[in-house]
Amino acid sequence: MQLTPVIAIHLSAALGSLVTGPVALWARRQGAARPRLHRAFGYAWVTLMLITAVSALFIRDFQLPNIAGYTPIHLLIPLTLGGLFMAFRYLLRKNITGHRMAMQQLYLGACVGAGLFTLLPSRYLGQLVWGQWLGWL
Fold it and tell me: 111 near 21, Cβ under 8 Å?
């Protein structure tokens, strides 16, 4: 597997969202509200997640079980887009608790959960970490 421009964009946006997400979540926790920081990192995180989801549409894998190159991990695309939609819908309805829960679940599922799948030895990042960096494969 090689690093194509689409994979580079996807990987960069995903790693960026993995880093910016906790700052956005931390900046708005109760007792330490930092609305400017929360909003800035929140919009950055949402933008990075949109780039990650859209770029994933153009990444195909015909080696794993798939349908037209789309593997089961591609199911995270509609879940991510739907989660972002619901989070902003909650926000527009001034349901801050719903917004917070949606964003926390989205971060854990789409960033942390999907991130663990990318460390499988058959994936590009997994080959890079386990094979080239650590020399275990």
Answer: yes
What confidence tens digit (pLDDT) does each residue in 104-115 have?
Answer: 999 999 999 988
* 119 three-class SS: coil
Kindly write down the DSSP assignment for every residue of 32-68, as one continuous string. S--HHHHHHHHHHHHHHHHHHHHHHTT---SSSS-BT
Beta bridge partners of 70: 67
pLDDT over threshold 90, residue 87: yes
Residue with tokens 């999907």: 114
User: In Å, what is the CA distance from 25 to each residue of 35, 43, 103, 104, 125?
Assistant: 11, 12, 8, 7, 26
pLDDT tens track for 25-42: 998 876 667 888 999 999
**Residues 73 and 80 sit within 8 Å (Cβ to Cβ):** no
The CA R_g of the chain, rounded to the nearest whole Å, is 16
Three-state SS letters, 59-108:
CCCCCCCCECCECHHHHHHHHHHHHHHHHHHHHHCCCHHHHHHHHHHHHH
Give residue 1's pLDDT. Answer: 65
